[in-house]
Write a structure and sequence with these properties.
This protein is α+β, with helices and mostly antiparallel strands. It has 15 helices and seven strands. It has a five-stranded mixed β-sheet, sandwiched between helices. The longest helix is centred in the middle third of the chain and has 24 residues.
Length: 376
């Protein structure tokens, strides 16, 4: 299948990370986690990013067709990534994985403490909800509705799924196997685009909204290293996952970033290499939204939160589809139970705040239009 130069390369396990060792040579944590995923996967890259940052020892393995049946049976899901803990627990869904890792490794928490920083804590959760759910429409569109995305990101996914090294020359049989796998994944991607309102008819919206988003991000990062300030949060790793796996890989969004927000490439590289023991600063002393983040939050309220409200109404009415118009004409989107689940989780945090913290959150976030969707 592959050239002689590529034979013998390990294709299942692609990365192994261990925390910095002490003078005696023993690591701070002997137990090792296993992460199953694919390189060109939004949420695999998100999880790999915060595992590296938190210096959690792990082995990263591609979820190939060889291991897929066992992984899916034990995890109880077809989704990626999946994390296997040293105790043998199988975890999935990047956000609960992050919360569990924060519980186990609290010194490198990915959100500010709710007790002392309710405004920034809620801001981090709101941004993570957005970055997990909304730019994924553009990620799907640029990969599966564009020939260049199919041949780059799609090919990457197919090779990883088959255990074929990327970049290696393939013989006729190998090329046919990769093509068939890519086409199988493309069928899923095409249907996913249809369901999230990101098919070819939505090209103007997908490109326009992507450019708008990356410009808002770049403006903020001109003044702040990360979304909440000097220290990366869970929302930063959600953004990192999209950039690493999709937007800097697939040619169309990569070109838009180069043209409109080139600094995002350097930001991604910096976060990729960052580890918490490099002396990362603590959370900001003052619990308030950075001024340069306000335009991004307003954008979230005007776009994603309009979807959240329409999605909740559709689910309550047992409607399979909803219609949303964000300025590009009516778009049909399949109602999504998971988006409502995450909305409710953030809403529960907001509802349970003590009176003083609730007032602080109201003063800080209400003027930006990002609380209404969580009060439904």
């Amino acid at each position: 299948m592959v050239s002689d130069a590529e034979q013998g390369r390990e294709t299942i396990m692609t990365e192994s990370r261990t925390p910095t060792q002490d003078a005696a040579g023993s690591s701070a944590q002997e137990a090792r986690y296993v992460i199953y995923g694919l390189d060109a996967s939004y949420f695999t890259r998100k999880v790999l990013g915060f595992f590296h940052y938190k210096q959690i020892p792990y082995e990263y393995r591609h979820k190939t067709i060889t291991v897929r049946p066992v992984v899916e049976k034990k995890a109880g899901t077809h989704l990626i990534p999946v994390v296997v803990t040293p105790e043998g627990e199988w975890l999935w869904d990047s956000t609960p994985i992050a919360f569990e890792m924060d519980r186990r490794f609290p010194d490198t928490a990915l959100l500010p403490p709710l007790e002392t920083h309710p405004v920034l804590h809620l801001t981090g959760r709101i941004l993570e909800d957005f970055l997990d759910e909304w730019p994924t429409r553009q990620a799907l569109h640029f990969r599966w509705m564009m020939d260049s995305g199919i041949h780059v990101g799609g090919d990457d996914l197919a090779r990883d799924s088959l255990g074929v090294p990327k970049g290696g020359r393939l013989d006729a049989e190998g090329a046919q196997m990769v093509f068939k796998m890519r086409e199988m994944i493309r069928q899923w991607g095409t249907e996913a685009c249809r369901k999230v309102g990101a098919d070819r008819r939505a090209s103007a919206e997908m490109e326009g909204e992507f450019v708008r988003l990356i410009q808002l991000l770049a403006q903020h990062f001109d003044w702040s290293p990360y979304l909440l300030g000097e220290r990366p949060s869970l929302a930063d790793f959600a953004l990192y996952g999209g950039l690493e796996a999709h937007f800097l890989l697939d040619p169309i969004p990569a070109g838009l970033i180069e043209r409109h927000a080139p600094a995002l490439a350097g930001w991604t590289e910096r976060l990729r290499e960052l580890v918490a023991d490099d002396g990362v600063p603590d959370w900001p002393a003052e619990d308030r939204v950075p001024e340069t983040l306000a335009p991004l939050l307003q954008y979230v309220g005007l776009t994603f939160h309009e979807f959240l409200k329409a999605n909740r109404a559709a689910l309550e009415g047992k409607e399979e589809w909803l219609t949303l118009d964000l300025g590009y004409g009516p778009t049909r989107i399949h109602s999504r139970g998971y988006a409502e689940k995450t909305r409710r989780a953030t809403a529960a945090v907001l509802t349970d705040l003590p009176e003083e913290a609730a007032e602080a959150v109201k003063r800080g976030l209400d003027p930006l239009g990002v609380l209404e969707a969580y009060r439904l």
